[in-house]
Amino acid sequence: MSIGVRSKHIGSEVFLLYAARGVRGFGDGFAVIILPAYLSAIGLSPAEIGMVATTALLGSSLLTLTAGFMAPRHDLRAMLMLGAALMVATGVAFPQMAHIAFVLVVAFVGTINPQTGDSGILVPLEHAMLARSVADSDRTHAFARYSLTGALATAAGSLAAATPDLLVAAGFGRLASFEMMFYGYAALGLVGAALYRQLPHAQAEQKGASTPLGPSRRTVYKLAALFSLDSFAGGLVVQSLLALWLFERFDLSLSAASLFFFWTSVLTAFSYPVAARLSARIGLVNTMVFTHIPSSIFLILAAFSPNLILTLGLLLARSALAQMDVPARSSYVMSVVTPSERTAAASVTAVPRSLASSLGPALTGMLLATPFSGLPLVACGVLKIVYDLALLASFRKVKPPEERET
Q1: Phi/psi at 133 (nearest 5 deg)?
Q2: CA 151, CA 166: separation in Å to the nearest integer?
Q3: Which domain covers residue 398, as residue numbers?
Q4: Which residues, 6 or more positions from 12, have their beta carbon under 8 angstroms from its beta carbon?
Q5: Residue 310, domain member (yes or no)
Q6: The domain spanning residue 373 has which CATH number?
Q7: Where are the alpha helices (DSSP H) in 42-135?
Q8: In-domain check, residue 206
Q9: Residues 6 or more apart whose Cβ sits within 8 Å of residue 146
Q10: Rg for the chain (alpha carbons), in Å?
Q11: Measured distance CA(117)–CA(57) in Å, rounded
Q12: Phi-psi category of residue 283: left, alpha or beta, with phi > 0 → left and psi -120 to 50 → alpha
């Protein structure tokens, strides 16, 4: 294959991955907002909603781990299509029954997470395919564009979360309106499957390997441990429960929440290209740390804010910084392992994060009923600052290839 044909092929592959990330982001954008509202509408308490969030994160962790360790021996395209099929099944199943036991089962095996972003079974598969399609010098920018696409789509999805209010105003029942949104989520899964189908077959780069992780095992496990602390903290303020906190503390409407989360996603989206440029100047690890700490301070201040306007302002300021570590982190993990370890590394660093974050929602569900409902925000901010300092101390001297060359 000539260089020109190969470049065109790679460009098409990257475009399809971006498009699929956008479709998934749009679905996640409205699902994480309507999920707590739907669960409240069918009679679940805040503590039970926290249990559902925890169960969803636990199930996501198990599926992500399985995908990460199976991928080096299987076709990535086929596994991506299976993940899209699971998304379809999740959207169809959620509206079928309102009993807590059924909801927990669907949450465990399904793809709707209480938080948006780089989590879920499809993430390590997309990361591995994207990393194999770009050069080291363009890797961070590629992940920034990938994250930008997802965040903008999530923003649009957040606006779509107001649809149930519009349907109710048009005469539809409240529960029927939520059910239509879940079916829309399933339809997006079909679109994702169609996009993945156009990808080339992508077998493991090192067939017959005895283990998905080899020479980089120690580095990956150390990163996974640190990321777990960050994710446990983040699990205390997953987006679904942050929405629930705003609903209960300030009586925020679903339409207002959808607009607020639209702007948080927009700010997050445009922070990604900034992160890519910043990392080229100060390095990936420094970018992760020195953008993260101010965002945690804004979150802590929001917990003590006396009114809705100030609270939303602080949370918006946090959104402009809080996710700048995402493309830097994804690029960094892909850079410090060998090509054959990339899928497993993405999975192994993602799964402990999901497991750790799954502990938070159930705890937050109970803390929301305490006299100081902002306690989860304070705990999240403090723990994230501890993580940032630990990451800086442990990895400031471990440079990716593009930083070693300069």
Answers
A1: -100, -5
A2: 24
A3: 3-201+211-404
A4: none
A5: yes
A6: 1.20.1250.20
A7: 46-70, 76-93, 100-109, 122-131
A8: no
A9: 17, 18, 21, 126, 130, 327, 330
A10: 20
A11: 13
A12: left
The answer to whether 30 and 187 are in contact (CB under 8 A) is no
pLDDT digits (tens), the chain, 406 positions: 443 434 444 468 889 999 999 999 899 889 888 888 898 888 888 788 888 888 887 887 777 777 766 766 677 888 889 989 999 999 999 888 878 889 899 988 888 876 665 667 788 788 878 877 777 778 888 888 888 898 889 888 888 988 998 899 898 988 999 999 999 999 999 999 999 999 887 654 444 444 466 677 788 888 888 988 888 888 888 787 888 889 888 888 888 888 898 898 889 888 888 988 898 889 889 999 999 999 999 999 999 998 999 999 999 999 999 888 888 888 888 888 877 777 777 777 776 676 777 777 778 878 887 888 889 999 999 999 999 999 999 988 888 877 765 4
Is 57 in contact with 142 (CB distance < 8 Å)?
Answer: no
**Torsion angle, CA of 181/183/187/189, rounded to 10 degrees?**
90
Is residue 117 domain-resident?
yes
* DSSP label of 369: T
Check: CB of residue 30 under 8 Å from CB of residue 163.
yes
Distance, in Å, from the CA atom of 24 to the CA atom of 295, rounded to the nearest integer, reads 26
Length of the chain: 406
Number of H helices, E strands in the chain: 17, 0
Q: How many domains does the chain have?
A: 1
Please name the amino acid found at residue 389: L
Question: In 3D, which of 351, 238, 218 has the Cα closest to residue 299?
Answer: 238
Residue 268 falls inside a structural domain: yes
Q: At what angle are helices 3-41 and 254-282 packed, to 10 degrees?
A: 140
Give the Cα separation of 144 and 150 in Å (integer): 10
